[in-house]
Specification:
Helix content: 25-40%
Strand order of the largest sheet: 8-7-6-9-10-11-12
Oligomer: single chain
Number of helices: 11
Strand content: 15-25%
CATH architecture of the largest domain: 3-Layer(aba) Sandwich
Distance between the termini: 22 Å
Mean pLDDT: 96
Length: 316
């Protein structure tokens, strides 16, 4: 069985490529194809592959070939043409929650960093300035707060369990009702009553820009917004205006409408001006631990399909 790994060179370290080769199931071979390979050569490799692993590259539906599963190593699938892949009879699976733990941890990290204004305190120390207790009355605890989780999938459920350990209570809004001991609310109710709102929805036509100016206006002035899903679910300009007006308690963002941030991005300046804004470069889902889970899940999925079983984590 031939597996083709399509990947962006800057996104996949050499040690992961070596591990992918070393951990191959018996009876499988692995071909590597990064973004330096020309389109014709890449198409030829796809035509020979039984299975494709994809990370950080676009994927054009092949005109010919025998691909039995397109396995994403990421959770998101918004950059794929699922309709075209379905017409080509190529099933698509995401990583099955392999990165859920680390994304959830990062979301909680952003909550705490905003509530404690961590970057300002760290940067002041690096600059040999002692802020001390001067900001004590502007810092807050996670304990006793209501955390509104928008999208209670694997990541959102882990966030709920984590914040419970800090003494926070969770509520959720989702298009699907989950059998959990957490109150379900409409999105408007969640926005209006939560101290912290954390976004964990996929990017779809329905969620693109759904956290807009009207949604932001529903949030209390002290509330904190955290996003580790996709940048396009938030109307960034509306969010910037809200922050500049001092009408939001803070924001923690790992994802943005444009990535990497363009040179004229307003976010670096906003972070310097406001201690309640924390940004990270779309790293919430990536740790060394998640790489091992991604590979293990992908390989087990290939083996399932080879046995005639359905893949797990199917999105199309």
């Amino acid at each position: 069985m031939q597996i083709l790994f399509l990947y962006g060179r800057r996104l996949v370290p050499e040690m992961i490529l070596e591990a992918a080769q070393e951990r191959l199931p018996e009876g499988y071979s692995l071909a590597l194809c990064d973004d330096s390979v020309g389109e014709a050569e890449r198409d030829a490799l796809i035509a020979e592959a039984d299975f494709v692993m994809l990370y950080g590259l676009p994927f054009a539906v092949p005109q010919e070939g025998r691909v039995r599963l397109l396995q994403l190593l990421s959770a998101g699938y918004d950059r794929l043409d699922l309709d075209a892949l379905a017409r080509a009879d190529i099933p698509v699976a995401n990583n099955g929650g392999a990165n859920a733990q680390t994304v959830a941890e990062h979301a909680v990290l952003l909550m705490l960093a905003v509530l404690k204004q961590l970057p300002d305190h760290h940067n002041a120390m690096v600059d040999r300035k002692w802020i001390g207790l001067t900001r004590g009355t502007s810092l807050k605890e996670l304990n006793g707060k209501q955390v509104g989780i928008v999208g209670l999938g694997k990541i959102g459920a882990k966030v709920a369990r984590m914040v419970a350990g800090f003494g926070a209570r969770s509520v959720y809004s989702d298009v699907v009702e989950h059998d959990v001991d957490i109150a379900r609310m409409t999105l408007d109710q969640l926005l209006e009553t939560s101290d912290i709102v954390t976004i964990h929805t996929p990017l779809t036509p329905a969620t693109k820009g759904f956290i807009d100016a009207e949604a932001l206006d529903r949030m209390p002035a002290h509330a904190v917004l955290v996003n580790t899903s996709r940048g396009d679910v938030i109307d960034e300009m509306a969010l910037v205006k809200k922050l500049e007006a001092g009408e939001l308690g803070g924001v923690g963002l790992d994802v943005f409408e444009k990535e990497p941030l363009p040179t004229d991005s307003v976010w670096p300046a906003l972070c310097r001006e406001h201690g309640n804004i924390v940004i990270t470069p779309h790293v919430a889902g990536t740790t060394l631990d998640t790489w091992w889970r991604r590979l293990a899940f992908a390989y087990s999925n290939f083996e399932r399909v080879a046995r005639g079983e359905s893949a797990e984590g199917l999105v199309s």
